[in-house]
Amino acid sequence: MEQNPLESGACRMLTPSMEDYLETIYELMKEKGYARVSDIATILAVQPSSVTKMIQKLDEKNFVTYEKYRGLVLTPEGEQLGRNMKQRHRMLEDFLRLLGVGESTIRKDVEGIEHHISPSTMRSLQSLVLFFQEYPEYQRAFERFRRLQAGTAEDRSTENLKVMDE
Fold first, then answer.
1. 56-69 pLDDT, tens per residue?
2. Are 116 and 159 in the same domain?
3. How far apart are CA 30 and CA 24, in angstroms?
4. Helix (H, G, I), strand (E, B), or coil: what is residue 64?
């Protein structure tokens, strides 16, 4: 059985920043067929010189092959890591959507969560997302429960205001 690179020693060698770069390079390669320093810099909102330094580090770790002024290519291991990071990112977005979290909050929260979540927790969250996809009636029941909870909280707030007015 093939080991998940996110659980391998390779992943432990990566910083959150390296993970972001690999995910971005993977996305660009899938979208455009290539990844340029300028594109990576724009997406990650960093200076091109910072991208070049990181690309050199990723090249030293054999996640990319980089030739100055020529471009870069993900190695098989780099591509696998990038793919898994993209899947992890997407799954966390799906999970937060399932909870009813708004899109702008999802973007911020996923960036904060994705580099700090253990593989076992990711597997559990993925199982829950897949469960709700397989059994949408339970997802609808959860959504009804959330609405009731939100209504109950509003009712409690109104009651507290009434008590304070007395």
1. 999 999 999 987 77
2. no
3. 10
4. strand
Cα distances from 123 to residues 6, 32, 88, 90, in angstroms, run 11, 30, 10, 13
Q: Looking at residue 22, what DSSP letter applies?
A: H
Give the gyration radius of the chain's Cα atoms: 21
Q: What domain range includes position 19?
A: 1-133
Residues 17 and 87 in one domain: yes
Average pLDDT for residues 35-55, to the nearest whole number? 94
Confidence at residue 45, expressed as pLDDT on a 0 to 100 scale = 95
Whole-angstrom Cα distance, residue 129 to residue 8? 24
pLDDT, tens digit (0-9, with 9 covering 90-100), for 87-107 = 999 999 999 999 999 999 999
Between CA 53 and CA 152 the distance in angstroms is 53
> CA-based diameter of the chain, in Å?
75
What are the C-alpha distances in Å from 52 to residues 12, 88, 140, 163? 22, 25, 47, 62
Report pTM.
0.75
Instruction: DSSP letter for 18, please.
Output: H
